[in-house]
Write a structure and sequence with these properties.
CATH superfamily of the largest domain: Enolpyruvate transferase domain
Strand order of the largest sheet: 21-22-1-23
Largest sheet: 4 strands, mixed
Number of helices: 14
Helix content: 25-40%
CATH class of the largest domain: Alpha Beta
Structural class: alpha+beta
Radius of gyration: 22 Å
Distance between the termini: 5 Å
CATH architecture of the largest domain: Alpha-beta prism
Number of strands: 23
Bound molecules: uridine-diphosphate-2(N-acetylglucosaminyl) butyric acid
């Protein structure tokens, strides 16, 4: 028996109302948890979301010898002075892709790191070639044996390098940014993505004395040096833009009047633009977004379909592609979705089709959606956290009850989702199934 969610569908009615607050960003918190390796003193993190992925990283840090104090649920004090081990536990690292973020900082600080091929959501091949090439450029030797990579820095430490990322990779950029802070001399990182999570990391490091230029551009230049001092200054994690976007899409489909608070609207600019073009009524303020609907019943012939493709920031995020597909099953007309980042991120489609959606598979990267189709509740198996959230939205729009199995996959990225959705009127409960 494992946790699942039982959801009562609204059959297209738009009844949700109230306030839903956005938590700290998972993908900003994960690299921030690797920061202690760059500091000679304690690093304080605030607004860290209480998610399964964060708990796995906490276990990983403890197994390395990092002192983790949690005074309040969302505030961590982390010290890496007593690190005794530079091998990432395969049991944990294989469960989450973000474990790769710890390799660069550990290698830069302690001269060695061992780790397995990281696991995580099944959304595509997810290679680590950019990491291996980068380590070698910084002078390290990479060996692979019995499923473990062993990376060893030169005796006098990693050296600065000129690295061009063939593909824009968020975690590769974060890993090499952090490694470069402790490397000898100058590192230039080129074709760096401009996701806000990277910008925030750069900005905190700069504020603690790291010599980094080119923030929020595709070219970062870093002059390495000794470990930094945090001096008691806390790093506050930004609001989760993917959670914000998920709530926007859910409210557009089922909301009468829902206000999303504690968010950064600028970070979901692309989602807002798509929803507005489709006819969604949004009121954007400094850190809130309100969605209202004048119609209480079905939205067919109300929202219009729009074709879209996923793109690196500030384009439409791949992490919201599945929720957007659910939206488009309800909009009027035909739409093409082009997933440009991952080749395995359309695996959720057959489940939506079984619910009544009309979606045509057009290869590993494209689907064609015939909108305006009512959905029927059913039992679903969440394949990954973002598709899992999309299934919750589909279940909410559908007629009848649905069960979404594999709640753990959703808990990886959304904290206590059922309690937060209940507050705006969603009939959802956690069950053992
Ligand atoms: N890639 C390579 N080689 C590499 C690394 C990446 O070819 O060595 C490719 C990937 O296969 C993919 C592209 O680069 O085609 C972009 O992947 P990226 O490395 O940017 O993904 P990531 O850093 O592993 C982060 C987020 C993901 C999010 C992607 C894209 C974190 C911890 N994860 O992953 O978030 O989908 O960027 O924006 O920041 C999620 O939260 O559900 C999630 C999967």
């Amino acid at each position: 028996m494992a946790d699942a969610f039982l959801i009562k569908g609204l059959d297209g009615a738009k009844t949700l109302s109230g306030i839903i607050a956005v938590n700290g960003s998972k993908n900003a918190a994960l690299p921030a948890l690797a920061l202690p390796f760059l500091f000679s003193d304690t690093v304080i993190l605030e607004n860290v979301p209480a998610l399964e992925d964060i708990h796995r990283v906490e276990e990983l840090l403890q197994s390395l010898g990092v002192l983790c104090k949690k005074q309040k649920p969302n505030r961590y004090e982390l010290t890496a002075q007593n690190v005794c081990n530079t091998t990432l536990s395969p049991d944990i690292a294989k469960r989450l892709r973000a474990s790769i973020l710890f390799t660069g900082p550990l290698l830069a600080r302690f001269g060695r790191v061992s780790f397995p091929h990281p696991g995580g959501c099944v959304i595509g091949e997810r290679p680590i070639d950019l990491f291996m090439e980068g380590f070698e450029k910084m002078g390290a030797r990479v060996n692979e044996k019995n499923g473990m990579y062993d990376v060893i820095a030169p005796k006098n430490g990693l050296r600065g390098a000129d690295i061009f990322f063939r593909t824009q990779s968020v975690t590769a950029a974060e890993t090499f940014l952090m490694a470069a802070v402790l490397a000898r001399g100058k590192t230039i990182l080129r074709n760096v993505p401009v996701e806000p999570e990277i910008g925030e990391l750069v900005s905190f490091l700069q504020s603690r004395g790291a010599r980094i230029s080119g923030a929020e551009t595709h070219r970062l230049e870093i002059i390495g040096g000794e470990p930094l001092s945090a001096d008691g200054v806390a790093y506050s994690i930004i609001p989760d833009r993917i959670e914000t976007g998920s709530f926007l899409i859910l409210s557009a489909l089922a909301g009468k009047k829902v206000t999303i608070t504690r968010c950064n609207p600028e970070h979901v600019g692309s989602v807002i633009a798509h929803l507005r073009s489709s006819g969604v009524n949004l009121l954007v303020d400094e850190d809130t977004i309100t969605i209202t609907s004048s119609r209480a019943k079905r939205m067919q012939s109300f929202y219009k379909s729009i074709s879209m493709k996923t793109h690196e920031y500030p384009g439409f995020p791949t992490d919201l592609q599945a929720p957007m597909a659910v939206f488009l099953t309800q909009a009027d007309g035909e739409a093409l979705i082009f997933e440009t980042i991952f080749e395995g991120r359309l695996g959720y489609v057959p489940e939506l089709v079984r619910m009544g959606a009309k979606i045509q598979d057009m290869g590993p990267h494209k689907i064609f959606i015939q909108g305006g189709t009512p959905l029927r509740g059913r039992e679903l198996e969440s394949p990954d956290l973002r598709a899992g959230l999309a299934f919750i939205i589909a279940a909410l729009v559908a007629k009848g009850e649905s069960i979404v199995h594999n709640a753990y996959s959703i808990d990886r990225g959304y904290e206590q989702i059922e309690k937060r959705l209940q507050k705006i009127g969603v009939s959802i409960k956690r069950i053992s199934a």
